[in-house]
Amino acid sequence: MDGHAVHVFYIAMKNYGFIRTAAAVPSVRVADPGFNTEEICRIISEAQENQVSLLVFPELCITGCTCGDLFKQSMLLKGAEEGIRQIVGFSTDRDVTVIAGAPVPYGGRLYNCSIVIADGSIRGIVPKIHLTSKEHRTFSSGNDFNTNADKWEIRYAGQKCTISPHLQFSLGEAVFAVETGDDMWAPVPPSSNQAMSGVHLIAHPSAEYEILMTDRYRNDRLRQHTAGTVTGYIHVSAGFGESTQDHVHAGAASIWENGELLAENERFSISPSLTIADIDIEKLENLRRGRPGFLNGSYTRISSGEACNTDFEAKLYRTIEPLPFASEKDLDYRCREILDIQVAGLATRLRHINCQTAVIGISGGLDSTLALLVAVLAFDKLGWSRERIIGVTMPGYGTTARTKNNATDLMAGLGITSREISIAAACDQHFKDLGHDKSVTDVTFENSQARERTQILMDVANQTNGLVIGTGDLSELALGWATYNGDHMSMYGVNAGVPKTLVRSLVRWATYNKFEDVSQILLDIVDTPISPELLPANDKDEIQQVTEDLVGPYELHDFFIYNFIRFGYSPSKIMFLARKAFGERYDNDTIRKWLKTFMRRFFNQQFKRSCLPDGPKVGSVGLSPRGDWDMPSDAWSTLFSADIN
């Protein structure tokens, strides 16, 4: 074999790891299984047209949930069984798994059951465990089946199957379970143990009625529950057509994934609804890895066949956030919280080592501005004079009047000690000593300036018994966009956990909430192109070296960073998601180009991350070698780069 040949063995995740789910609220006629069956079958057809793999109907949907003592009538029970028989037949040769609710008699008792149907057969029947006081008049608890779960067999609607509350169902790569109605509201819902045993999805057919604040409380509960169990959750409740004799049913439907609401319908509608969302099974699997408590317990697992061959390229039923670090959702809260974390970290370090000053290189750019604002807030928190903050501006060959003026004006406006130390003469001497022609603006030309600036900051810190505060951010660390032992190094890196797209948001938030007296300067800094200013400006004194022209758009790189590190996605899946998120902004070739750049740089620049200074983690993604990201500096990117197509 040729020494340069490479064999890559890679099995792509089917359907990018997604499964399409839906929550259906049908029109209902109480105690009319014939009408309800037709409506259920109609919605099954609609779901199939939308390539849904798992379809969940409300509790007792075949009869209506408000039948009361009519559930004791054998005619209604036989009508419900016949309705299920028809649905089973209708499901033949359809690749959608259906969960429908019906009253099921067994052993002289009646159970409120969710029936799992796929391709012409009943795969299992799951009885409800936790009953309301009113339900106890009619139904028995599924706890009757707590022993010998695999031996409880029933013949129902012409099918022989298992009846038990402890069933799990495999559906392609996904595993799902069912908990019905009030089971979700138990102190320890059945789904908690199901999730610990490897279930990804929980179907929740419900018939809860609606009173004031029910929706808010339910959503809070589902948000916390799905985050704690790392599950996808399909909730659907009985709706229009149920009796309003004592209560109103709103027909609420919502689909959740690990604490995030993917989709919900409009409650109190008088029309049927089909709420669809694509749940990411791969994400759930990756988030569970390394977490304690999963894969415990014993359940009977039944195959429900393969998932639908869904075309996710054509349509994806979920929102892909293009700016996962800087989403507008809860941005005010997140900015406040992140700044508090940064300030607390720096204040603790300053007081612990009892230093007299904090030394920061101020360039007039975003990163150094954020670091300075954090330092000012930390000194204010400690009750120390801002004059003990030493801001050093170090103009060089590429410094423009705009950035220099912003740097000096900001320092003056904030009341810190300002020093200006030009690096030009020192670099001239250095190039002379090296025998380097400074007209050759190569990596030596650029990195010498960065290291000279770092030397000045370290020496000023020694001179004043101070601490050098690093300004580099998470995005630069991921890409290795820093000069080794230059701006790569500091004594405490306050921005180490903050990605570039979030730096701008934090500076803007601080402008309006903390530093309105210097707002004009800060807003101009926010609008300044990102640049290291290591190459000479043009004849109009404009920045020549724009970072994003060289390394790629930071909004793309931050998207790559988040999905690669947080969820462990393959490059091909990241490419797919990026096309969905940025399709109107970047074409495929552009996304592919910068994704390849990201993979190459992320792997070959790990050596810079292996010796990072201390710095506070502020979010779910971090690159500290001391606990967040453990990666050998000699890892190859071959497998990952080959996956980008």
Topology:
Blueprint: E1 18-25, H1 33-49, E2 54-56, H2 74-90, E3 97-106, E4 109-118, E5 121-127, E6 153-156, E7 159-162, E8 167-171, E9 174-178, H3 190-196, E10 201-206, H4 214-229, E11 232-237, E12 253-257, E13 260-264, E14 273-280, H5 281-288, E15 300-303, H6 331-353, E16 357-361, H7 366-382, E17 389-393, H8 401-414, E18 417-420, H9 424-434, H10 443-464, E19 466-470, H11 474-479, E20 492-493, H12 500-513, H13 519-527, H14 547-551, H15 554-567, H16 571-582, H17 588-604, H18 606-609, H19 638-641
Parallel strand pairs: 1-2, 2-3, 8-15, 9-10, 10-11, 16-17, 16-19, 17-18, 19-20
Antiparallel strand pairs: 1-14, 3-4, 4-5, 6-7, 8-9, 11-12, 12-13
Helix pairs in contact: 1-2, 6-7, 6-12, 7-12, 8-13, 9-10, 12-13, 15-16, 15-17, 16-17
Short overview:
The protein is an alpha/beta fold.
